Amino acid sequence: MDTAFIAQLAAIVGPDGVVSNKTALSVYDCDGYTLEKSTPDLVVLPRSTGEVVAVVKLLHKEKIAFVPRGAGTGLSGGCLPVEAPVMIGTSRMNKILHIDLVNRYMVAQAGVVNLWVSNAVKSQGFQYAPDPSSQQACTIGGNVAENSGGPHTLKYGVTTNHVLGVELVLPDGEVVQLGGVVDDVLGYDLRGITIGAEGTFGIVTQATLRLTRQPQAYRTFLVVFETVPQATQTVSDVIAAGIIPAALEMMDNLMIQAVEAAFHVGFPTDAGAVLIIELDGLEAGLDPQTKKIMAICERNAAREVRLAQDEAERTALWKSRKRAIGAAGRLAPNYCTQDGVVPRTKVPDILAAIARISEKYQLRIGNVFHAGDGNIHPILLFDERNTEETERVLKAGREILQACVDLGGSLTGEHGIGVEKMGQMSLIFTPEDMLAMTQVRAVFNPENRCNPHKIFPTPHGCIDTRVPRRQASL
Amino acid sequence: MSGGENGARFVIDGREPKEVMFPESVEQAAGMLYTAAEHQRAVSPVGIGAFLHIGGLPRRYDLALCLQRMNRVLDYQPTDMTVSVEAGIPLAGLQQVLEEQNQWLPIDPPWPERVTVGGLIAMNLSGPSRLSQGTIRDFLIGIKVIRADGTVIKSGGRVVKNVAGYDLAKLYCGSFGTLGVIAEATFKIRPRPEAQTVVSFLFPSAEQAMAVVLGVLGTELQPTLLELANSAVGGGQRSDRSSYQLFIGFSGSAEEITYQHGRLQEIAGTSAEKHPTLSEAIRDFPVSGEAALRCKVNLLPSQIAAFCKAVEEEALVRDLSVEIVAHAGNGILYCRLPQRDNPPQEKLLSFVDWIRILAKKLGGSVVIEAIDPALKDRVDVWGHVGSSFPLMKRLKETLDPQGMLNPGRFVGGI
Ligand SMILES: Cc1cc2nc3c(=O)[nH]c(=O)nc-3n(C[C@H](O)[C@H](O)[C@H](O)COP(=O)(O)OP(=O)(O)OC[C@H]3O[C@@H](n4cnc5c(N)ncnc54)[C@H](O)[C@@H]3O)c2cc1C
């Protein structure tokens, strides 16, 4: 990029807000999906909405495409620059702007890290419900873009259920306020369509987040099973009994081993599967529900039910769950995380299918996932130096998603389509469906200069499908 | 197919459609839209027709496309807790099916017998339970829509968590039939609570009632609803004319309810009256009763008390009686000037102006949901949208380029 242009950007964001040095740029060549890579020519790091506007206006004038980036923890290549030379990073837009506990909302800049939101209101008894496992790193802007979920979304819903308003800088530099602070706003729900648009509508600069009361009490169980089918049947039975736990997570033997090797929390490494079940709410209601859950576990031949005795034990359980994907690094040099969804009662079927696919392709596949929602995360282990094995990983991944679709499910529950699953969109959408979607995109992003070549299948250029490297672990 | 049934049922603001059609399948409905588009006829999708008074004056109204005969439950999976239906099924009909499995779609708008699922989505209707459950956008996981030109599209699916493609379903929630005809919908549903109760308190002022509302919301309590009514509601039979009645609902197990009643008593400091359920008079208030003016006010909960006080004082000065029911925990208020007082037109219009200024001052907005259609060309029933309006207009032009779906009925004359 020519130096005059770089100087213009530096005049807006300050010299330390422009990254143009080759080595420094290599940090930005992929997100948590490492099978494809591409380095931006420049990274710009604005600090405010005003700076974003000025940067985007300049890019608009020069007709230069750009890609928004939060923390880069995405798992579908959403912030991979594809024919977009400039990356706009939100890491310096990290301020909480306003907290109103009476009306229970917060306004935060896009680069604020998910966990900071809950931490800021924790001592007053509030929280921000969506809790992706990457919450120590991922940003609110990234959450809005991906409509992220987390273990507790089973009961509390995903990002879209907790974001009241979004400030968006359109690709021509115009600022619009979508949604608001009041519950019902006039006109079309443009906030709703922007959430989950994977950063293809513009740059989210700030968001108004709904805060909720922390539950009064919890019961958190680790339930140990000899076999995977016993665990999945328990999941189905709990849901069928009309109980909606706060969270209902599953881990199979391979993942138990990984977590145990990494964190030594005392998981039984010979177990077929464990469930983490959490109930929350009023203390007065928890014991009767606990009894029901215990009975269901017993009926499905649970080997052991461990109840977290205090907050420390509960935290330890969640810590191991939330860092489980990262722990997969203990099992193999590389791994790839998938994100299909099936109807909740089809969890046993999809796990059986994954086991077959694992056999067929001679790959080790671990499972750690949001079982109560039917949102699976098979983790495919491999060694990048073995290109033939890497090829099998890609094939197996596609076959798993096909199996999800065949069971009435979807390609992605929370990680997004990105570049990773573009090719499979036609498994669930017709050309007419996708035409309507791209037409809606054009309302916001008519020249497709914000995050081009994402979500919808296009013949895209210039991504290096290289030998992958080790995934960033959190 | 049977067209031409008497259009009187589907009169909008005094206008009758030239024709009414009753498709029995998505394909039929799509064919009708395709033909209508070819002939440039203005189409209003309708259900039962009970809510047609809400919205701006139709610029044109050629065809009422009534979805009442598309009323099947397509797929109900109680153990997955999802259900797919055709859009013409009345909400009450759907609830009945779900109730057999002890489940429900947790939306309780007024008149569930008189609203179809399609209408519920298009109007973004809600009720007292939105406090604890949310609104239709929180439950709609998949949608099939017929575009203005007859093309059928879908988004979402039948799984409770899904981010493949854009979340088009959100666009149709509250779109007032201006972006497409909602043909099918899939919802995630919930188990019915074991038990429910409603208690009420009387307070001398809105301020005192709201102090309890905000106090309760700041505790561990999990009220299912918080409805506030002024003394004029129900014909002002309550003895103390300046009082406010606050209804608080709880649900869950017997233990949970008992605990919460106890805590509530401590917070409110007065004793409660028990009710079997929330009365239909309160639930249906937003649409029922002859109204000279009815409006929906959107505020922050912390502004409700100030709003109520100002409105009551002003009404007194203007010699108007005003009835108010609020979803107090959500900051949503319905105000009604009863028809029996027969307020003159100019007085109504001036009151509308005044109430809009007040709401704006408090950071909110006012939608006029019922007024004499003859006045609709003198007030903007929706009010000012703000910085996102140009996008909304472009969206409408994209999805309905000929402007044939419900022309004139939505914000900014869309
Ligand atoms: C170990 C691990 C665990 C995870 N667990 C979960 C989980 O439980 N649930 C879940 O849903 N996800 C999970 N993820 C995925 C990921 O963390 C989420 O998708 C997250 O929301 C991404 O946030 P980010 O800030 O890292 O965004 P990035 O990865 O930087 O970007 C993601 C997308 O958002 C866009 N974007 C970012 N910021 C903006 C902005 N300000 N405006 C517009 N577009 C923007 C980007 O262009 C890109 O398309 C996990 C990832 C990892 C590595």
Overview of this structure, please?
The complex is a heterodimer of chains A (474) and B (414). Chain A is an alpha+beta fold and 474 residues long. Among the domains of chain A are: 3-89, Uridine Diphospho-n-acetylenolpyruvylglucosamine Reductase, domain 2; 217-325, Alpha-Beta Plaits, CATH 3.30.70.2190; 332-417, 2-Layer Sandwich (Alpha-Beta Plaits), CATH 3.30.70.2740. Helices cover 34% and strands 19% of the residues of chain A. Chain A has 15 helices and 18 strands. In chain A, the strands form 4 sheets. In chain A, strands 15-12-14-13-17-18-16 form a 7-stranded antiparallel β-sheet, sandwiched between helices. In chain A, strands 5-6-10-8-9 form a 5-stranded antiparallel β-sheet. A 4-stranded mixed β-sheet of chain A has the order 1-2-4-3. In chain A, β5 and β6 (105-109) form a beta hairpin. The longest helix of chain A has 20 residues, at 387-406. Chain A starts with a helix and ends in a 30-residue tail after the last helix. The model of chain A is unreliable at 460-474 (pLDDT under 50). Chain B is α+β, with helices and mostly antiparallel strands and 414 residues long. Chain B has helices spanning 26-38, 91-99, 117-123, 130-133, 168-172, 206-217, 254-268, 280-283, 304-317, 345-361, 389-399; strands spanning 19-21, 43-46, 63-66, 73-77, 82-86, 103-104, 140-146, 152-156, 181-188, 190-191, 195-203, 225-230, 244-252, 273-275, 291-298, 323-327, 332-338, 365-371. In chain B, a hairpin with a 4-residue loop joins β4 and β5. In chain B, α6 (206-217) packs antiparallel against α9 (304-317). The longest helix of chain B has 17 residues, at 345-361. The model of chain B has no long low-confidence stretch (mean pLDDT 94). The chains are: A alpha+beta (474), B alpha+beta (414). Chains A and B meet through β9, α7, α8, α10 and α15 of A and β8, α5, β10, α7 and α11 of B. Bound molecules: flavin-adenine dinucleotide.
